[in-house]
Automatic annotation (TrEMBL):
<feature type="binding site">
    <location>
        <position position="166"/>
    </location>
    <ligand>
        <name>substrate</name>
    </ligand>
</feature>
<dbReference type="InterPro" id="IPR017861">
    <property type="entry name" value="KAE1/TsaD"/>
</dbReference>
<dbReference type="GO" id="GO:0061711">
    <property type="term" value="F:tRNA N(6)-L-threonylcarbamoyladenine synthase activity"/>
</dbReference>
<protein>
    <recommendedName>
        <fullName>tRNA N6-adenosine threonylcarbamoyltransferase</fullName>
        <ecNumber>2.3.1.234</ecNumber>
    </recommendedName>
</protein>
<feature type="binding site">
    <location>
        <position position="267"/>
    </location>
    <ligand>
        <name>substrate</name>
    </ligand>
</feature>
<feature type="binding site">
    <location>
        <begin position="133"/>
        <end position="137"/>
    </location>
    <ligand>
        <name>substrate</name>
    </ligand>
</feature>
<keyword id="KW-0808">Transferase</keyword>
<feature type="binding site">
    <location>
        <position position="110"/>
    </location>
    <ligand>
        <name>Fe cation</name>
    </ligand>
</feature>
<keyword id="KW-0479">Metal-binding</keyword>
<dbReference type="InterPro" id="IPR017860">
    <property type="entry name" value="Peptidase_M22_CS"/>
</dbReference>
<comment type="similarity">
    <text>Belongs to the KAE1 / TsaD family.</text>
</comment>
<keyword id="KW-0963">Cytoplasm</keyword>
<feature type="binding site">
    <location>
        <position position="183"/>
    </location>
    <ligand>
        <name>substrate</name>
    </ligand>
</feature>
<feature type="binding site">
    <location>
        <position position="179"/>
    </location>
    <ligand>
        <name>substrate</name>
    </ligand>
</feature>
<dbReference type="GO" id="GO:0005737">
    <property type="term" value="C:cytoplasm"/>
</dbReference>
<feature type="binding site">
    <location>
        <position position="114"/>
    </location>
    <ligand>
        <name>Fe cation</name>
    </ligand>
</feature>
<keyword id="KW-0408">Iron</keyword>
């Protein structure tokens, strides 16, 4: 079964092609350069850029797979959450394509896409599992008892993990996105030189909190600590915080498989820390951790039994919770 997946939730246009759960092609047009002068994503510019490039990306993935468009069995697109103007481009394009081809259209939740990206190289994994989405806008820990069923165990109380990396990087005078920049600088620093404490260490639940960490980075800078040392300690503490919450969730639920997804899943320090916890870990392969279209097609593939084809009248939704229970 050939599934085309489209994601235009924010500032990347992602189009991917999946055959029977295997990623065959994946193209992402990044808008980072377009928005960097403005210090953030400009929604109207993002929408216009999606419109400009989406058709070419669809043609490109079909060309890479040597597939005629009429051979597609299903078209999937992100319904939300995201910037409404940006979402509408990919969502409407996908509906139009499905309608023209007389093929089913499936609406996918963006976080569902992130979650199933972790299964791209682990097709044998089955629920139940834990899924941590640590991205630019979310830090959500789900229990997934069955395909397409999501119980929210905990989420961030303030900033998302990726957002904390981005904001701290900015304070340290580094570029955007901040995650990879901090990871690079941290390798040259000594975390022991900067006193930052792990957030929410005594909680019973599964909440995350990163905004205090960002403030602590600002204070450490004021005190004259070296940026590399601050980066090293920030990363160590952020990673430790995530590991502690995840460890508690694994103990409480008894689950032993953990999917880690979203841009922060690319962080090598996080991967190394989680490796030592005795869990079976699934990470997205390179290129599938951040926003892309293949993850949307993968989500449609894995949840196909549950979600029948979506109604073409379904609207895009900028605010859309994922938890089903
Ligand atoms: P959302 O899905 O919540 O709307 P998003 O799609 O913008 O957010 P992603 O594209 O999944 O987020 O991830 C981008 C985030 O991941 C950025 O905040 C970036 O700094 C962070 N990130 C990327 N690489 C790394 C890394 N190596 N270490 C830490 N963080 C990273
Ligand atoms: Fe995302």
């Amino acid at each position: 079964m050939w599934i085309l997946g489209i994601d235009t939730s924010c500032d990347d246009t992602g189009v991917g092609l999946v055959q029977d759960g295997r990623v065959v092609a994946n193209q992402v047009a990044s808008q980072t350069l377009l928005h960097q002068h403005y210090g953030g994503v400009v929604p109207e510019l993002a929408s216009r850029e999606h419109v400009r490039v989406i058709d070419g990306l669809v043609e490109e993935v079909l060309r890479q797979a040597g597939l005629g468009v009429e051979k597609l069995d299903l078209v999937a697109a992100t319904r939300g959450p995201g910037l409404i103007g940006a979402l509408l481009v990919g969502f409407t394009y996908a509906k139009g394509l499905a309608f023209a081809l007389r093929k089913p259209f499936v609406a996918v939740h963006h976080l569902e896409g992130h979650i199933y990206a972790a299964l791209a190289e682990h097709p044998e994994v089955r629920p139940p599992f834990l899924a941590l989405v640590a991205s630019g806008g979310h830090t959500h820990l789900f229990e997934v008892p069955a395909w397409g069923v999501y119980r929210l165990l905990g989420a961030t109380l303030d900033d998302a993990a990726g957002e904390a990396f981005d904001k701290s990087a900015r304070l340290l005078g580094l570029g955007y996105p901040g995650g990879p920049e901090i990871e690079r600088l941290a390798a040259q620093g000594d975390p022991a030189r900067v006193p930052l404490s792990v957030p929410l260490q005594d909680q019973e639940g599964f909440s995350f909190s990163f905004s205090g960490l960002k403030t602590a980075v600002a204070r450490a800078l004021e005190k004259g600590h070296a940026p590399a040392d601050i980066a090293a300690r920030f990363q160590e503490v952020a990673v430790e915080h995530i590991a502690q919450v995840v460890g508690r969730a694994a103990r409480k639920t008894g689950l032993t498989t953990l999917l880690v997804t979203g841009g922060v899943a690319q962080n090598q320090a996080l991967r190394a820390r989680l490796q030592g916890m005795g869990l079976r870990l699934c990470f997205p392969p390179r290129g599938l951790a951040t926003d892309n279209g293949a993850m949307i097609a993968l989500a449609a593939w894995h949840t196909l039994g549950r979600c029948s084809k979506s109604n073409l009248h379904l609207p895009a939704a900028p605010y859309l919770p994922l938890a089903t229970s």
